[in-house]
C-alpha cells in the first residue's frame, strides 16, 4: 500500500486502545504452540512485497482437513473480518479439496518480525489475492475455485480480476462492494432498524426510548444490539424476542447491555487478528473516517448517527493512521472480474447490506453471474449453516449442493432454491446475468 498518503506515528503501548502483547511470536512459533487437530499442514514462502522481491519472503500457512486428492477439484476458502480464521470451520464438500489458509499477518501466517507485523504496506487485499495464487501454484493446480465470505469477498473477487485463467469460479457471500461510509454506515442498515422500531407497540417504543437515557447504559445500545442481531437469520423475530425478555427487567437489561458494549480490542496471537483488522480496515475499508460511526442514537424517535467512530479510536489511531487521511478505498467495479461468479446475500444482512451485493452484481462482473437473494436471511446464511457444525438434514444437504454448483460455475437449479424456500421461512430467489459457458 505504498501509494497511500498515510501519516505514520509511533505506537504508544501504554496509552494504546489496541492492546498488543509484549512478546511477539512469528507464525511458525504460533502454529507450534497451538493445537490444531486434524489439520494437514501446507507451508510455503510468499513475497513480503510482490512489487519488490528484494524485501524477501514471509511464511504462509494453509491446510486441509482431509488428505489432498489431486484428482478432485480444489476450492480455497477466504475468511472474513478482516482478521478472522477458519481453524474451527466445519466446511467440507465430499467431491472437493477444501483448502483453508491464515491470511498474511494473522495466526500461523504472522511474519517473522514484530517490525514487519506492524508495517502497513505488508497488508493489502491485493497481497492476499496474490498469496492465494501462490497456494495454487504450490499445489500445482491449473485452476481453483475461490469462496470468500464477508471481508473475504474482497480478495476472492480480486482473484477473478487478476487471475481469470486460473479461476474455475468465484463464490461471494455477504458481499463488500466498496469501502468508506457506505460500508461502515450504510443507510440501508439504519433503515432496517428504524423500520423494526416503528413496528413495535407504542409502550415498547417508549420503554426503549426511556432506557436510551439510562445512566448505566450507553445511549447507542439499541443500534448496537440491533446491528448484532442483523447477523442472524430471521433477525426481526430474534430481536423482538430478545427485547421482550430484557427491557422490562432493569437489572438484567443493564447487565446484558454492558456485555454488548465495545471494549478495547486485544490482539491475539492465534484466532482473530486485530492488527490485521486495523491494517486492512483503516487503509482500504474506511475505518479511519471520522463520520463512519457504526452506531445510532434516538432523536425524536428517529435513529441518527452518534458521531463516534470507535473503530477509528480502537484501531486506526494506534496503528498510525490519522482520522480522515485519504486512502485508496476498495471499489470492486474498478477491478472487474471475468470469472463465473455466484453471489449469496441475505436481505436482512446488517453487516454487508443487500444494496452492496446488487451493485457488485451489476457493476463488478463481466461474464456469467448469478445473484441468490435470501429473504429474511442475515450475514452468512450458507456458510454459517455449513461451517457451524449444527446444520443437519435436508436443509444442510441442499445448501451444500447449492454451494457445490456455484463453485463449479454452474447455474443453481430453481427447483433446488424452491425446496430450500419450502424448508424454512427464508425465501431463495435468483437473478442471472449472462449464462455460463460450461
CATH topology of the domain at 27-180 and 330-433: Rossmann fold
Gyration radius, in Å: 22 Å
Describe the largest sheet: 9 strands, mixed
Share in helix: 25-40%
Q: With helices defined by DSSP (H or I, 4 residues minimum), what is the helix count?
A: 16
User: Mean pLDDT, as a whole number?
Assistant: 92
Q: What proportion strand?
A: 15-25%
Number of strands: 11
| Topology order in helix (H) and strand (E) letters | HEEEEHHEHEHHHHHHHEEHEHEHHHE
Terminal CA distance reads: 37 Å
The CATH superfamily of the domain at 27-180 and 330-433 is: Alpha/Beta hydrolase fold, catalytic domain
Order of strands, main sheet, comes to: 1-2-4-3-5-6-9-10-11
Task: Specify the overall morphology.
Answer: globular
Top CATH class of the domain at 27-180 and 330-433: Alpha Beta
Query: Class by helix and strand content?
Result: alpha/beta
CATH architecture of the domain at 27-180 and 330-433: 3-Layer(aba) Sandwich
Please characterize this protein's 3D structure:
This protein has 438 residues and is of the alpha/beta class. The protein has a domain at 27-180 and 330-433: Rossmann fold, CATH 3.40.50.1820. The chain is 36% helix and 16% strand. The chain is built from 16 helices and eleven strands. The strands form two sheets. The chain has a nine-stranded mixed β-sheet, with helices on both faces. Helix 4 links the parallel strand 5 and strand 6 (167-173). The longest helix is centred in the C-terminal third of the chain and has 15 residues, at 393-407. It is globular. The chain starts with 26 loop residues before the first helix and ends in a 5-residue tail after the last strand.
